[in-house]
Specification:
Helices cover 35% and strands 29% of the residues. With 128 residues, it is of the alpha+beta class. The radius of gyration is 19 Å and the shape is elongated. The relative contact order is 0.17.
Length: 128
């Protein structure tokens, strides 16, 4: 009886570890975190210059870039800095803060990007 209980505990522990690993490494999209439908204004900062988006077309192009991102949760790194600092304002006066470099930080949560999306954001930023 004790042997069966011991094996059951081992199997449950293994299943929980595998489940946590799979859950931790699942692909997340920015739309899962931020509600794109309530965005009223976006400020994209690069160094000391800012581009402000208020038109629906421009916000849609911006959210298309964000929606194309494939993210995985990660622990914070010692690396400091960003290429873009982005403030997203919503109808209900909420605000999201993003810091985009090779990885992305969304409201103090860190994510690893499937690829570097800075080139896409540079092209979009430079079009203004």
């Amino acid at each position: 009886m004790k042997k069966k209980l011991g094996w059951l505990c081992i199997v449950i522990t293994i299943v929980l570890c595998i489940s946590f690993f799979v859950w931790r490494n699942r692909i997340i999209h920015v739309a899962d975190i931020i509600d794109f439908d309530t965005i009223t204004k976006v400020e994209i900062w690069r160094t000391d210059k800012c581009v402000t988006l208020t038109e629906n077309e421009d916000i849609k192009k911006f959210t298309d870039i964000l929606n194309s991102m494939e993210l995985k949760k990660k622990l914070p790194s010692d690396k400091d800095g960003f290429v873009f600092a982005i403030d997203i304002y919503h109808k209900n006066n909420n605000k999201n803060n993003l810091a985009l470099s090779s990885d992305i930080r969304i409201d103090r949560q860190h994510y690893r990007c499937a690829r570097d999306y800075c080139d896409d954001m540079h092209k979009f930023y430079d079009s203004f």
